Protein backbone atom coordinates (compact mmCIF):
# COMPACT_ATOMS: atom_id res chain seq x y z
CA UNK A 1 0.00 0.00 0.00
CA UNK A 2 1.60 3.24 -1.05
CA UNK A 3 1.73 6.27 1.20
CA UNK A 4 -0.51 8.13 -1.23
CA UNK A 5 -3.29 5.55 -1.05
CA UNK A 6 -3.34 4.61 2.62
CA UNK A 7 -6.12 5.97 4.78
CA UNK A 8 -6.16 5.71 8.57
CA UNK A 9 -9.15 3.95 10.16
CA UNK A 10 -10.24 3.35 13.73
CA UNK A 11 -11.13 -0.20 14.73
CA UNK A 12 -13.62 0.56 17.47
CA UNK A 13 -13.86 -1.80 20.43
CA UNK A 14 -15.08 -1.29 23.99
CA UNK A 15 -11.50 -1.34 25.29
CA UNK A 16 -8.28 -0.41 23.48
CA UNK A 17 -7.79 2.32 20.88
CA UNK A 18 -6.84 0.52 17.67
CA UNK A 19 -5.99 1.99 14.27
CA UNK A 20 -5.05 0.52 10.91
CA UNK A 21 -4.43 1.59 7.33
CA UNK A 22 -6.40 0.60 4.24
CA UNK A 23 -6.44 1.93 0.70
CA UNK A 24 -10.22 2.47 0.69
CA UNK A 25 -13.51 1.87 2.50
CA UNK A 26 -14.14 -1.53 0.86
CA UNK A 27 -10.90 -2.98 2.19
CA UNK A 28 -11.40 -1.31 5.59
CA UNK A 29 -14.90 -2.75 5.88
CA UNK A 30 -13.74 -6.23 4.86
CA UNK A 31 -10.78 -6.39 7.21
CA UNK A 32 -12.66 -4.71 10.06
CA UNK A 33 -15.61 -7.05 9.87
CA UNK A 34 -13.47 -10.12 9.29
CA UNK A 35 -11.19 -9.39 12.23
CA UNK A 36 -13.98 -8.10 14.48
CA UNK A 37 -16.54 -10.70 13.40
CA UNK A 38 -19.30 -8.18 13.95
CA UNK A 39 -18.08 -7.27 17.43
CA UNK A 40 -16.30 -4.03 16.48
CA UNK A 41 -16.84 -0.92 14.43
CA UNK A 42 -14.77 0.68 11.70
CA UNK A 43 -14.59 4.39 11.04
CA UNK A 44 -12.43 6.41 8.67
CA UNK A 45 -10.39 9.01 10.53
CA UNK A 46 -11.32 12.59 9.82
CA UNK A 47 -14.63 12.06 8.08
CA UNK A 48 -18.12 11.03 8.99
CA UNK A 49 -19.36 9.78 5.61
CA UNK A 50 -18.80 6.38 4.08
CA UNK A 51 -20.12 2.88 4.64
CA UNK A 52 -18.03 2.23 7.72
CA UNK A 53 -19.43 4.79 10.13
CA UNK A 54 -22.04 2.44 11.57
CA UNK A 55 -20.98 0.51 14.61
CA UNK A 56 -21.69 -3.18 14.23
CA UNK A 57 -21.32 -4.40 17.81
CA UNK A 58 -24.50 -6.44 17.43
CA UNK A 59 -23.30 -8.46 14.45
CA UNK A 60 -23.15 -8.24 10.71
CA UNK A 61 -25.44 -5.72 9.04
CA UNK A 62 -27.60 -6.43 6.03
CA UNK A 63 -25.52 -7.20 2.95
CA UNK A 64 -22.19 -6.89 4.75
CA UNK A 65 -21.30 -10.56 4.65
CA UNK A 66 -21.72 -10.68 0.87
CA UNK A 67 -19.68 -7.48 0.38
CA UNK A 68 -16.90 -8.77 2.63
CA UNK A 69 -16.75 -12.15 0.86
CA UNK A 70 -16.62 -10.41 -2.52
CA UNK A 71 -13.88 -8.01 -1.44
CA UNK A 72 -11.80 -10.82 0.07
CA UNK A 73 -12.23 -12.94 -3.06
CA UNK A 74 -11.31 -10.10 -5.42
CA UNK A 75 -8.63 -8.31 -3.34
CA UNK A 76 -7.18 -10.76 -0.79
CA UNK A 77 -3.66 -9.30 -0.79
CA UNK A 78 -4.95 -5.82 0.05
CA UNK A 79 -7.10 -7.20 2.88
CA UNK A 80 -4.10 -9.03 4.36
CA UNK A 81 -1.86 -5.98 3.96
CA UNK A 82 -4.41 -3.80 5.77
CA UNK A 83 -4.85 -6.38 8.55
CA UNK A 84 -1.10 -6.41 9.12
CA UNK A 85 -1.16 -2.68 9.93
CA UNK A 86 -3.39 -3.07 13.03
CA UNK A 87 -1.89 -1.40 16.10
CA UNK A 88 -2.94 -0.60 19.65
CA UNK A 89 -2.44 3.08 18.91
CA UNK A 90 -4.87 5.96 19.11
CA UNK A 91 -5.20 8.40 16.23
CA UNK A 92 -2.87 10.81 18.04
CA UNK A 93 -0.35 8.06 18.88
CA UNK A 94 -0.28 6.42 15.45
CA UNK A 95 2.59 8.55 14.09
CA UNK A 96 4.64 7.67 17.20
CA UNK A 97 3.88 3.96 16.74
CA UNK A 98 4.77 4.12 13.02
CA UNK A 99 8.10 5.81 13.73
CA UNK A 100 8.97 3.56 16.70
CA UNK A 101 8.16 0.30 14.87
CA UNK A 102 9.43 1.36 11.43
CA UNK A 103 5.85 1.27 10.12
CA UNK A 104 5.19 -2.06 11.80
CA UNK A 105 8.23 -3.77 10.28
CA UNK A 106 10.21 -4.20 13.52
CA UNK A 107 8.34 -7.14 15.06
CA UNK A 108 10.15 -6.93 18.42
CA UNK A 109 9.16 -3.27 18.83
CA UNK A 110 5.59 -4.03 17.69
CA UNK A 111 5.30 -6.70 20.41
CA UNK A 112 6.85 -4.40 23.03
CA UNK A 113 4.52 -1.53 22.08
CA UNK A 114 1.47 -3.82 22.22
CA UNK A 115 2.50 -5.19 25.61
CA UNK A 116 2.71 -1.70 27.08
CA UNK A 117 -0.46 -0.32 25.47
CA UNK A 118 -2.95 -3.20 25.32
CA UNK A 119 -5.31 -3.34 28.30
CA UNK A 120 -7.79 -5.87 26.97
CA UNK A 121 -7.54 -9.65 27.14
CA UNK A 122 -8.56 -9.62 23.48
CA UNK A 123 -5.56 -9.44 21.20
CA UNK A 124 -7.32 -7.97 18.18
CA UNK A 125 -4.06 -6.67 16.70
CA UNK A 126 -2.16 -9.92 17.15
CA UNK A 127 -4.99 -11.78 15.44
CA UNK A 128 -5.15 -9.25 12.58
CA UNK A 129 -1.38 -9.19 12.04
CA UNK A 130 -1.31 -12.99 11.91
CA UNK A 131 -4.12 -13.19 9.36
CA UNK A 132 -3.49 -15.35 6.29
CA UNK A 133 -5.85 -16.84 3.75
CA UNK A 134 -5.47 -20.33 2.40
CA UNK A 135 -4.25 -20.55 -1.16
CA UNK A 136 -6.87 -21.96 -3.49
CA UNK A 137 -5.97 -24.06 -6.48
CA UNK A 138 -7.37 -22.88 -9.82
Secondary-structure-derived class = alpha+beta
Please state roughly what percent of the residues sit in beta strands, choosing from under 5%, 5-15%, 15-25%, 25-35%, 35-45% or over 45%.
5-15%
The coarse silhouette is: globular
Give me the number of helical elements. Answer: 6
Rg, rounded, reads 14 Å
Q: Could you describe the largest sheet, including whether it forms a barrel?
A: 3 strands, antiparallel
Please write the string of helix (H) and strand (E) elements: EEHEHHHHH
Give the termini distance in whole angstroms: 26 Å
Number of domains: 1
Strand arrangement, largest sheet?
2-1-3
Helix content estimate: 25-40%
Low-confidence stretches: 51-57
Q: Average pLDDT, to the nearest integer?
A: 83
Number of beta-strand segments: 3
Write the layout of secondary structure elements.
Blueprint: E1 7-12, E2 18-22, H1 25-36, E3 41-44, H2 64-74, H3 76-83, H4 94-100, H5 107-117, H6 124-129
Antiparallel strand pairs: 1-2, 1-3
Helix pairs in contact: 1-2, 1-3, 2-3
What does this structure look like?
The chain is α+β, with helices and mostly antiparallel strands. The chain contains 6 helices and 3 strands, in the order ββαβααααα. The protein has a 3-stranded antiparallel β-sheet with strand order 2-1-3. A hairpin with a 5-residue loop joins strand 1 and strand 2. The longest helix has 12 residues. It is globular.
